[in-house]
Amino acid sequence: MTAIHNTQVLKGQLDEAIANTSGVTAERDRLNKDYQRYLIGSRAKVNPFSDSDIDHARQNYLAQDALVKGSIAEQSQIRSQLDSVINGEQSQIVSLRAQLAEAKYNLDQTVIRAPSNGYVTQVLIRPGTYAAALPLRPVMVFIPEQKRQIIAQFRQNSLLRLKTGDEAEIVFNALPGQIFRGKLFRILPVVPGGTEESHTGSFCRRTYFQHSSRRIDAKTRF
Fold this sequence. Notes:
Layout: H1 2-42, H2 51-87, H3 91-108, E1 118-123, E2 140-144, E3 149-155, H4 156-159, E4 167-170, E5 180-191, E6 197-200, E7 205-208, E8 215-221
Antiparallel strand pairs: 1-2, 3-8, 4-5, 5-8, 6-7
């Protein structure tokens, strides 16, 4: 009776795991389509998306893909337990095999991949420390191999006096007395004003402010 009961329970758990895998797989495919849409848009002559938007979509897709892999690993574990009950295999062997599969999955998750081509200028992580998906502090300083860009927001009336190729001067509160010069190389399409929104991650923060008039983004390179 115990073996039969365990078999029924495991079959029920397997059915739930299969249904869960279908759900997370569908969500992963949807996020992948969004990510591909951002990539295609970034290659257009007028790119409506920022680098942070593209990276945010990529991170969402990778996180959902990890859930799919975890759900598949759960299915494998339940199938192994079910086989052990049906075939009379010792439960300890099944448990060890499941632990090995989980260890291999966890080991694969320890690989840190850069969001783009670049180089690391400072490594803050040390042996024995942990890196999380949403760390409270960065584990390293990564410099992408691309020209520096600054995105500025202007009111619509101010945009009438701006055109591609204009000289620009940029100042930072943290660097008093220093002026960085550049050129305006792109004016993005009109973006309607909205409520204040903030995105925070390990690499950047971008904030949108509400305006009574429409807002146009302008990118400056230096």
